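Hi there,

I know you've been waiting on this one. I reran it after we fixed the sequence typo, so this is the corrected version. Both the input and the resulting structure follow.
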Amino acid sequence: MSGVTTFETMGTVVSLRGATPGAASEVRAVFAGYDHRYSLYDPSSVLSSVADGSVRLADTPSEVRDVYALALDWRERTGGAFTPHRPDGVIDLSGVVKALAIRDAGAVLDAASSSGDWMVSAGGDVLVRGHHRADDPWSVGVVDPAHRDTVVGVVRLEAPRRAVATSGTAERGEHIWRRATPTFVQATVIADDIVTADVLATAVVAGDEDDLRRLTSDADVDVLAFAADGTVWATPGARSAVRTEDGATSAAT
């Protein structure tokens, strides 16, 4: 298997394993394309032009409107816990575009990998294919939000559960638009696809216990969520995949 390739984009670091130099270059281009279209920190991006009023959303390329429609669909599916609108009304699609870039990067790696074994990781979101080593699945550590140097468990990713995403406030502070009094400080979602994992991890942190129960009931995912009061919420699948520290209070969803 090829070594590790890393590069910075979208305000985070992307790490690739199992990528040939050519595939790594293509993956860089995938992320750069999404960043160029959707970054609100780049004044030349399409979404920045929408935000400053110089371009109407209706006049943007169809792919931009399609991503916005996808974000609106997720807002509906999460009962509003996830939203593509900032509190000031600005359209911000960062909640889906990183996951879409990871998804497309996975397609590049699928086409380029002779072994079928690869991993792409970007800012807490991970998508894999195959195994790390023979009969040894890819593993992702879950960090304790209260003690960032402590790994409280390990998620072993095996098909069809190929994606895991973690959202929280420990590293970047309160950057998630909450619609309720803060209940959760971190959520890890394990799913079959990275977009579902990423969106629902954000939705859990943005919502409350009722949102968590509804989302885990409606979607085929496993969730490990850390509440502000120290309670650890886990679906049955997450309980089997991740072992929390002894003494942690846990509640089934």
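Quick highlight: The CA atoms of residues 124 and 166 lie 5 Å apart.

Best,
R. S.
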